[in-house]
């Protein structure tokens, strides 16, 4: 008991440094702001830090996700919690340092309160993107029918929904072109956010705005994944405020709306029992997203790190090495084999869990630096671009697209989404050129 008490005191004492980090963040955008940096910090606190606090204090011992570690929990709980804490402190410290060097606090603030402006070619480009999105959307609906969303609406069993979810996510290449779907998924965010930005400043195109938001919602919900849709809604709110030159703040009303949507999604896809929904949400938010850090610390401390072998085929071919399954899938098969039968296939978590699995202590030390640098540079570049509907859309998209921060370190080394994003950017530049030529010709 003395050892446990000392571990908790040490963890809480070190956690106080997070307050200092948030003070710096607040200097950039204000207290309780919903901007890029603050949103990522809140996400870390809710989905990682609070979970680690619950686990190290023993309040999560009865959780389904924690029970497989009960045999040798104390060392794993303490070591894993320190990794979670270091991941947050390291990432945001480097993030803020890079942002200060490449952009500066005052320029960042100025960009947040600057109003969005649009040119005629912006609207032409957006209209063409909307048409392309519609075509890809219909292709997706046909290819994935019946989708997990459809099965949820017709009251299919949770097992059937989970199994179909695997078919339209993990095994998507068996039924559709994955690049077309990936481009469509990215465009669903960008087009809908850009129209929301336009509508926020000009009150125009209400029908196209509504349709693009509807398409994006169906696109995201069709996989049966609940978190991405909730993040999409938050991104829409952030986009509208950002376009108007306002800084949205966290409020009781916003928290209530978020919880309502979360309950609604679980009601549709998982269960109609209130007590079960509450328990599942608690586990999903506070435990499931951080437990992989502890699983990885436990499993790969004994097995040894796996290096680049779990990365994309690009790396395995480059180094002529044998590919192995990602840590998230390995951990699922070892600790939760029964979930595999119910449609689960991986246990994703905070990026440092995969960094530990891949490269051991070195990976755990360096990974927050890499994540902080990449995101600091990304945000600095983004904030130097003219504030247009498209810029607002990408700002909102990258703000809520913190999924890799919460799920994968491999994605910071290489991911096919990089190529998809580049393709969409090239497409936007090409359509912009057409729009400008059209305006000059018929002006």
Which whole number gives the mean pLDDT?
85
| Rg value | 22 Å
Gross geometry:
globular
Main beta sheet, described?
none
Keywords: Membrane, Transmembrane, Transmembrane helix
Protein name: Wzy
Organism: Escherichia coli
Transmembrane segments: 6-25, 32-56, 76-103, 124-142, 179-198, 252-270, 355-382, 394-412, 418-439
Outline the structure in words:
The protein is globular. It has helices spanning 2-15, 17-29, 36-56, 73-102, 105-113, 120-144, 148-153, 158-168, 178-202, 206-221, 227-243, 252-269, 274-288, 291-303, 313-318, 327-335, 337-341, 351-383, 389-400, 403-407, 416-442. The protein contains 21 helices and no strands. The protein starts with a helix and ends with a helix. By secondary structure, it is mostly helical. Helix 3 (36-56) runs antiparallel to helix 4 (73-102). Helices cover 74% and strands 0% of the residues. The protein has a domain at 120-273 and 390-442.
Short summary:
This protein is mainly α and 443 residues long. It has helices at residues 2-15, 17-29, 36-56, 73-102, 105-113, 120-144, 148-153, 158-168, 178-202, 206-221, 227-243, 252-269, 274-288, 291-303, 313-318, 327-335, 337-341, 351-383, 389-400, 403-407, 416-442. Helix 6 (120-144) crosses helix 9 (178-202).
Characteristic key phrases:
mainly alpha; transmembrane; 443 residues; 0% strand; globular; membrane; 21 helices; Wzy
Map the helices and strands.
Elements: H1 2-15, H2 17-29, H3 36-56, H4 73-102, H5 105-113, H6 120-144, H7 148-153, H8 158-168, H9 178-202, H10 206-221, H11 227-243, H12 252-269, H13 274-288, H14 291-303, H15 313-318, H16 327-335, H17 337-341, H18 351-383, H19 389-400, H20 403-407, H21 416-442
Keywords: Membrane, Transmembrane, Transmembrane helix
Protein name: Wzy
Transmembrane segments: 6-25, 32-56, 76-103, 124-142, 179-198, 252-270, 355-382, 394-412, 418-439
């Amino acid at each position: 008991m003395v050892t446990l008490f000392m571990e908790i005191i040490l963890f809480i004492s070190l956690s106080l440094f997070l307050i200092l980090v948030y003070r710096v963040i607040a200097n950039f955008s204000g207290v309780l702001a919903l901007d890029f940096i603050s949103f990522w910090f809140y996400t870390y606190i809710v989905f990682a830090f609070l979970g680690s606090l619950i686990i190290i204090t023993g309040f999560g011992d009865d959780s389904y996700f924690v029970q497989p570690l009960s045999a040798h929990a104390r060392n794993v709980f303490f070591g894993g919690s320190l990794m979670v804490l270091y991941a947050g402190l390291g990432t945001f410290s480097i993030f803020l340092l890079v942002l200060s060097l490449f952009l500066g606090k005052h320029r960042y603030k100025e960009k947040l309160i600057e109003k969005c402006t649009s040119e005629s070619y912006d609207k032409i480009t957006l209209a063409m993107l909307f048409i392309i999105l519609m075509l890809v959307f219909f292709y997706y609906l046909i290819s994935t029918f019946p989708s997990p969303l459809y099965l949820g609406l017709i009251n299919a069993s949770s097992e059937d929904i989970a199994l179909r979810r695997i078919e339209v996510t993990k095994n998507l290449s068996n039924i559709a072109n994955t690049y077309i779907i990936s481009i469509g998924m990215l465009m669903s965010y960008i087009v809908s956010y850009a129209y929301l930005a336009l509508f926020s400043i000009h009150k125009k195109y209400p029908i196209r705005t509504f349709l693009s938001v509807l398409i994006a919602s169906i696109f995201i919900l069709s996989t049966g994944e609940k978190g991405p849709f909730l993040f999409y809604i938050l991104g829409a709110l952030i986009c509208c405020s950002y376009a108007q030159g306002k800084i949205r703040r966290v409020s009781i009303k916003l928290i209530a709306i978020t919880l309502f949507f979360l309950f609604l999604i679980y009601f549709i896809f998982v269960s109609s029992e209130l007590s079960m929904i509450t328990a599942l949400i608690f586990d999903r938010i506070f435990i499931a997203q951080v437990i992989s850090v502890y699983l990885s610390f436990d499993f790969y401390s004994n097995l040894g790190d796996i290096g680049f072998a779990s990365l994309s085929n690009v790396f395995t071919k480059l180094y002529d090495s044998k590919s192995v399954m990602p840590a998230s899938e390995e951990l699922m098969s070892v600790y939760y084999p029964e979930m595999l039968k119910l449609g689960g296939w991986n246990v994703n978590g905070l990026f440092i869990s995969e960094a530990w699995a891949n490269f051991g202590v070195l990976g755990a030390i360096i990974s927050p630096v890499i994540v902080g640098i990449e995101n600091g540079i990304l945000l600095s570049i983004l904030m130097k671009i003219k504030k247009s509907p498209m810029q607002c859309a990408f700002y909102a998209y990258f703000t809520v697209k913190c999924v890799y921060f919460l799920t994968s370190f491999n994605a910071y080394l290489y991911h096919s989404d990089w190529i998809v994003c580049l393709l969409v950017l090239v497409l936007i530049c090409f359509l912009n050129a057409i729009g400008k030529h059209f305006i000059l010709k018929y002006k």
